[in-house]
Write a structure and sequence with these properties.
The protein is of the alpha+beta class and about 350 residues long. The protein has helices at about 5-20, 45-60, 95-105, 110, 130-140, 165-170, 205-215, 285-300, 310-315, 320-345; strands at about 30, 65-70, 125, 150, 170-175, 190-195, 195-200, 200, 225-230, 235, 275, 275-280. It folds into 2 domains: about 5-70 and about 285-345, no CATH class; about 100-285, no CATH class. The chain starts with 6 loop residues before the first helix and ends with a helix. The mean pLDDT is about 90. One of its GO terms (cellular component) is cytoplasm.
Length: about 350
């Protein structure tokens, strides 16, 4: 859902109706938004409004979900996640194409046909439904419902290092305000890999599983648990897809060391499909996002003399409702913070 502007209120009402109608159905919410528009540095009012909206929107949507995945960087262009893309934030559909590709990839296991425990498929592996993903990511000891979405678009080759980054190194966040280089011993990960390449050819499902599992053995801090879903089929690029690929991306999504063409952008006529990798991550690296939402809600809206108190009243929020939001955010922060302290002490 787009939770920006007035859409946030619509999304909250919609989710409330869904939760009431389907009481035993877990809800996985991707709250997606486009780039943050430039704000006049001298416009304190605009900054307060934006920060309060983000805090209130997150607080209103969270109670109706089992998992919530904030998605959308303030500036996708120039971010690490767009290393092999040529994004212009102001152009229509550039950012939405990336987020749509990421959501399509991470949700692929929900559409896979499950196979029996003794059966196998040469095309897909790792089918799961939403309830199983919720139990895996949020059903652990700390009950963390706020997930980080990482993506590798396109995913690098699995055969050694290409452009000095491996697949795990190339999975970078599309969730804003995420801490880097966090050693979280309680992390849990859910990963999908589509159409991975190895030595110039499409890697088999079993090859991908073996190579990814081997890669996890060579990182300093491994997740306490992770699930891997694999599809032999890459992500197809439809004709209407915007021209967002850099000139280091080949026809099958392979990454090359030198520019293929003089043009800085390549579209669907040049790139027919790409290997993709996406990951949902339950990690204390999401703490900065939660802390900023909590800090802005208290400092700008609840405390005596807060500059946004009148604005919140005009939005229809009373102080007791805002305090409930603050308590909910505080619990999320404490749950992750206490486990981070525990991990560090170990």
């Amino acid at each position: 859902m787009d939770d920006s502007g007035g859409f946030s209120s619509v999304a909250a009402d919609f989710l409330e109706n869904i939760a009431d109608e389907y009481t035993n159905t877990p809800i996985l919410l991707f709250s997606v938004r486009g780039p943050t528009p430039d704000i006049n540095p001298e416009s304190r009012k605009q900054a307060v409004s934006r920060d309060l909206h983000d805090a209130v929107s997150f607080s209103r949507l969270s109670p109706y979900c089992k998992l919530i995945v904030p998605t959308g960087l303030p500036r996708l262009s120039g971010s690490k996640a767009s290393r092999f893309l040529n994004i212009v934030d102001e152009k229509p559909y550039h950012c939405s194409a990336v987020y749509a590709a990421a959501l399509l990839s991470i949700s692929l296991p929900f559409r896979m046909e499950p196979v029996g425990p003794t059966a196998s498929s040469s095309y897909v592996s790792g089918a799961m439904d939403v309830n199983e993903v919720v139990q895996m990511l949020a059903g652990q000891a700390r009950q963390n419902m706020v997930q980080i979405l990482d993506v590798a678009m396109p995913a690098p080759s699995l055969s050694g290092k290409q452009n000095e980054m491996t697949l795990l190194e190339n999975l970078l966040p599309l969730t804003p305000d995420v801490a880097e280089n966090v050693e979280d011993l309680q992390a849990v990960e859910f990963m999908t890999v589509l159409g991975a390449l190895s030595e110039g050819h499409r890697a088999s499902v079993s090859q991908v599983r073996d190579l990814v599992h081997a890669a996890f053995q060579h990182i300093d801090t491994r997740p306490v648990f992770f699930h891997l879903a694999v599809s032999l089929c890459p992500l197809p690029i439809p004709l209407t897809f915007p021209s967002i690929f850099s000139n280091l991306v080949g026809q099958q999504g392979e990454l090359v060391g030198s520019p293929i063409s003089e043009s800085s952008s390549r579209g669907s006529l040049d790139v027919h499909s790409i290997p993709m990798a996406a990951r949902l991550r339950s990690s204390s690296a999401v703490l900065p996002l939660l802390q900023s939402r909590l800090r802005n809600l208290h400092g700008l809206g609840i405390q005596r003399g807060a500059p946004g108190a009148q604005l919140l009243r005009s939005w229809g929020f009373e102080k007791d409702e805002l305090e409930e939001m603050g308590e909910m955010l505080s619990k999320m922060v404490v749950a992750l913070d206490s486990h981070q302290i525990s991990s560090d002490s170990d």
